[in-house]
Design goal:
This protein is α+β, with helices and mostly antiparallel strands. It folds into three domains: 53 residues, Structural Genomics Hypothetical 15.5 Kd Protein In mrcA-pckA Intergenic Region, Chain A, CATH 3.10.290; 94 residues, 2-Layer Sandwich (Alpha-Beta Plaits); 79 residues, Alpha-Beta Plaits, CATH 3.30.70. The strands form four sheets. Strands 7, 8, 9, 10, 13, 14, 15, 16 and 17 form a nine-stranded mixed beta sheet that branches. A four-stranded antiparallel beta sheet has the order 3-2-5-6. Strands 1-4 form a two-stranded antiparallel ribbon. The protein is elongated, with a radius of gyration of 20 Å. The structure holds uracil. The site of uracil has 8 residues, from helix 5. Uracil (URA) binds next to helix 5.
């Protein structure tokens, strides 16, 4: 049968990634021509009307990719029911339904990507792609090499062992150290929990790099569109070509 799988169709509409769309479908929030559909494999054809939570969705005609320097005190979501500022509120004048790729805590600043392309989001957030992320943290006190080695090897958190990571002291702020930590997993508040676990809680946290894409000189609250070399920095040249990003 012709048509596009419902799950893929929702991702192409910018509703969410394919994986997250599957959950939205399972929750019974999606209707095709007025009928609730809970099977993500059902095919959507051109003449179908698809709604999510009662709102009609249509495929995005052009894909948008943006990098933003998220200031602390801004939510990493598309909207907030308590009316707090969200990352998408900082991107003015772009006519697309953007959503953030992954999350930074409310108090964390730095590099976050925004897109309306569910597949792009999926590639960056699915653990199997092992995208490395680099953070700089001001921590309380100065960790010894033994403590840093614990993080390098992997440490026990309440949700299990962390994967091996890289960490170095890169500077000092008064009596406190500035560390750079590079991780290939993204559990909730992971950097904060790892540093707390070695006895050096985070005072300030900023993400400075995703794969080889650096935040660079972008000021807090500022954003720019991604360009060809940025996609290569994220995925490597071959994969970026396969994804038709360059
Ligand atoms: N780890 C954290 O603890 N917080 C973030 O915002 C990102 C990674």
């Amino acid at each position: 049968m012709e048509g596009t799988r419902l799950q893929k169709f929702l991702a192409s509409c910018g509703v969410a990634s394919r994986r997250a769309s599957e959950i939205i479908i399972a929750e019974g929030r999606v209707k095709i021509n007025g009928k609730i559909i809970t099977d993500p494999a059902v095919k959507v054809v051109r003449s179908d009307t698809v709604t999510v939570d009662g709102k009609k969705v249509t495929p995005e005609s052009s894909k948008v990719y943006i990098m933003l320097n998220k200031p602390a005190g801004v939510l990493s979501s598309a909207k907030d029911d308590r009316d707090r500022t969200c990352v998408v509120d900082l991107v003015k004048g772009v006519d697309a339904r953007l959503f953030p790729v992954g999350r930074l805590d409310y108090d964390t600043s730095g590099l976050i990507l925004l897109t309306n392309d569910g597949d792009f989001m999926q590639k960056l957030t699915h653990p199997s792609y092992e995208i490395w992320r680099t953070y700089q943290a001001v921590v309380k006190g100065v960790p010894t090499q033994n403590k840093l080695d614990e993080i390098e090897r992997g440490i026990e958190l309440e949700d299990g062992m962390t994967l091996p990571a890289h960490i170095d002291v890169i500077g000092y702020k008064g009596k406190n150290a500035i560390v750079e930590i590079v991780l290939r997993e993204g559990r909730n508040r992971q950097v904060r929990r790892m540093l707390e676990a070695i006895g050096h809680p985070v005072i300030d946290l900023k993400r400075v790099q995703i794969a080889a894409l650096e935040l660079g000189e972008l000021k807090p609250g500022a954003w720019r569109y991604l360009r060809g070399k940025d996609f290569e920095a994220l995925f490597g040249t071959e994969t970026a070509k396969k994804m038709r990003l360059i």
